[in-house]
Amino acid sequence: MTLMTWNDSFSVQNIEMDQQHKQLFELLNNLHAAMSQGKGRETLSDVFDGLVKYTHLHFAAEEALLKKHNYPGLSEEEREHKELVAQVSDLQKQFQAGDFGASMKTRDFLKHWLIEHIQGSDRKYGVFLSQKGIH
After folding, report:
1. What is the C-alpha to C-alpha distance for residues 73 and 76, in angstroms, rounded to an integer?
2. Running DSSP on this structure, what letter comes out for residue 10?
3. For a Cys-Cys bond, which of 12, 28, 81, 116 suits 110, CB 3.0-4.6 Å?
4. What is the pTM of this model?
5. Rounded alpha-carbon distances, angstroms, from residue 42 to 74, 103, 110
6. Which residues contact 18 (CB under 8 A, 6 or more apart)?
7. Confidence label for 83 from pLDDT (cuts 50, 70 and 90)
8. Domain-by-domain residue ranges, the chain?
């Protein structure tokens, strides 16, 4: 069961970053499907493993790309990334402490991330890189 589907409104016009963002859609949709089957808690450990791996790899790649091309909003992007990592860590701790609402909180967090961060902050650097002819 799909909660959110990738479309061009999420594209930052950079093939590598779009591919990485699509992985986040997959994590969200896998969690949502598991929750629909009553297996959200059983799946959450794998979701967190994927999220931790994703944040380290994706944020490093994104920040390196932006630094390479002197993106003026890099410090703001780095700040947002740190906040997202902290939120993932907090949700993971809640889950490990037995919070029964952790599945819903994590699903809502991922959905918000896709809408607010990718369609907001990341789209800004997408425009910047596109204007420089970098795709």
Report:
1. 5
2. G
3. 28
4. 0.88
5. 37, 9, 18
6. 10, 11, 12
7. very high
8. 12-131
Over pLDDT 70: what percentage of the chain?
Answer: 100
Q: Give CA torsion, residues 15, 18, 20, 21, to 10 deg.
A: 180
The span from the CA of 117 to the CA of 80, in Å, is 8
Asked whether 29 and 12 are in contact (CB, 8 A), the reply is no
Q: Put residue 2 in one of left, alpha, beta given phi > 0 → left and psi -120 to 50 → alpha.
A: beta
Q: DSSP string of 33-97?
A: HHHHTT-HHHHHHHHHHHHHHHHHHHHHHHHHHHHHTT-TTHHHHHHHHHHHHHHHHHHHHHHHT
Q: Which amino acid is at 29?
A: N
Instruction: Provide CB contacts within 8 A for 51, sequence distance 6+.
Output: 27, 88, 92, 110
Query: Which DSSP symbol is given to 132?
Result: T
Which burial class, exposed, middle or buried, applies to 12 when counting CB atoms under 10 A from its CB (0-12, 13-18, 19+)? buried
CATH 3.40.462.10 fits 12-131, yes or no: no
